[in-house]
Amino acid sequence: MKQYNKITPEGTKDRLFGECEKRGGFVRSLRALFESRGFREVSTPVLEYYDVFDTARAYFPQEGIYKLVDHDGRILVLRPDCTIPIARLIGARLKNERGPLRIFYHQKIYRHASGHSGLSGEIAQMGVEFVGGDLPICDVEIVELACRSLRSVCGSDYQLELCHIGYFNALVDSLNTDPATREQIRELVEHKNFPALDLLLERFEGCPAQKALKKLPALFGSVSVLEEARALFSNEAADRALDALADLYNALSSLGLDHLSLDLGLVNQADYYTGIIFRGYTAGAGEPVLSGGRYDELIGEFGPARPATGFGINLDLLCERAEGTAAVPPPRAAVLVDAKSPVTEAFSLVERLCSQRFAAELIPVRDTRDAPAPEGFDRVFRVVDGAVKEG
């Protein structure tokens, strides 16, 4: 008995006309923006060897990966991330290219959506990677481009949160704790779980970083949180991170970008990012539609080490949340034809209409003379006795 022949797998869905048109409009807008800034497109296979992600297991847990086996018994995975395969591509095939490299991609990723979490297991992403630049202006460029990207598809209805992972790392480094406890602290800060965080940090009573870590999830808002953070904890590494974040915020503000805020509790993937982290939101989205940051150590796992920064946009979530940004479809034209209609005249008409930016469709009917005009079209043409008539 067929049980699954009319449904899609958990975490996937069919997408109908309007949603595909809307996403297509986003893609065209973002592609034009990225190309105008000198970024060039690459693509990686949807199937990768598991070793690509096993090397980067500290960054991406293997539990979230769909796996399969090829005919030689080698483990393959459905691509669960775009940046790691691009790091492989750069390390293997672009290692001799002079930098900086400006790369963009438009691909799908696949991640295991367990149970009834409501999370998608198939996600369309579009993003950029800026490889080979480590000056502060490189971060300014990427974050400014992230803001422009959101503005191009959301108008002014977006917010970008900024952080620097160096402050969190300075705090937990001063605790001199084990990796498992460090990860527990990171997860509790990331999810703003104050009660559990307070309980976990009790063992570090008297440590200068304890008080700062307890308040870290609440350190968000305007630029004033940087001084509050500095008052809570200060050493060379922490001050360097806060100074870099302040410089970035001021540079972006000088460019007229005002949809910015700071969140020092933004500590996702602390082992992956090495500097600035940022997330972008649009109204009604409980999770970020854009995320990115600086990752200077990843490419070195696949070839010569190169600094890098970038971001990715969740196109599916963007389509669900962004309002009033759907692409305007072209006007529709119907060309009614019957068995007596000259083929050359019918297709010539379709070609002319397409050149005039119509979406032209051939509509087969029994008799073009008395067939009713189809609904939903802006213009209707009939091929009658070798001549074209409108209406």
Task: Summarize, please.
It is found in: Cytoplasm. Helix content is 36%, strand content 22%. It is of the alpha+beta class and 391 residues long.
Characteristic terms for this protein:
391 residues; alpha+beta; BirA Bifunctional Protein, domain 2; 2 domains; nine-stranded mixed beta sheet; four-stranded mixed beta sheet; 12 helices; 16 strands; 22% strand; elongated
Largest sheet: 9 strands, mixed
Please identify the oligomeric state. single chain
Q: What is the third-level CATH name, the topology of the largest domain? A: BirA Bifunctional Protein, domain 2
What spatial order of strands do you see in the largest sheet?
A: 1-5-6-12-11-10-7-9-8
In which range does the helix fraction lie? 25-40%
The top-level CATH class of the largest domain is Alpha Beta
Task: Please give the radius of gyration in angstroms.
Answer: 26 Å
Could you tell me the strand content as a percent range? 15-25%
The low-confidence parts are none
The tally of helices reads 12
CATH superfamily of the largest domain: Bira Bifunctional Protein, Domain 2
| C-alpha termini separation | 50 Å
Assign the CATH architecture of the largest domain: 2-Layer Sandwich
Mean pLDDT: 88
**How many separate domains?**
2
Q: Please provide the count of β strands.
A: 16
Class inferred from helices and paired strands: alpha+beta
The ordered string of helix (H) and strand (E) elements is: HEEHEEHEEHEHHHHEHHEEEEHEHEEE
Q: How would you describe the shape?
A: elongated
